[in-house]
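Below is how a single chain appears once it has passed through the pipeline. First comes the sequence as given, then the structure the pipeline wrote out for it. We keep one example in the README because the format questions we get most often are answered faster by looking than by reading.
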Amino acid sequence: MTQAAPNKRDDGTLDRRDVAAILLRDPGDLLVVTGLGAATYDVGVLGDREQNFYLWGAMGGAAMIGLGLALAQPKRRVLAITGDGEMLMGMGSLASIAAARAPNLAIAVLDNARFGETGSQHSHTGLTTDLEAVAAACGWAATATARDMAAVEALRLRLRTEPLFAVIRINADEKPRFIPPRDGAYVTERFRRALGIVEN
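Resulting structure:
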């Protein structure tokens, strides 16, 4: 049996902070859920907002938390921003979200083909797994992959108006970590205030 030659790695080139700055320019009342690690740092460094819901240690949960929020707040736009490693861990959520058809939810995956929180080991997305194709196979009607900043700029409006699954191919360069609030009770309480939910 002949062994197939390994495929060439497909690494992204975009700067993650530049990408986040475009996606969150003029956020208005957009509700943002961030996956653990770099996605949280990237969103937080742009300005800590009470409409940001940061996940700490909930790997694989960002997309489903985004879905729950979108279903509970159907008049609000929800954007889940996460990484490829976190999305790989929660890949089954793509089928559930596609089936739910929440029109106010979009997901942006900042894909550097690395597991950044555990040592920057290569993830599957640089070689064998195409997350956009997975989402399409799960039933997402609108998917996209951005490899340049013009494509990211074009995605900005779509992520605010469509139930879109978007992969953005970023490079693996480390950035200084910006640590937004880590107190889960505090983040949850201020997020509830941003939603207009008042405790009795």
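The chain has one domain: 16-194.

See the next section for the split statistics.
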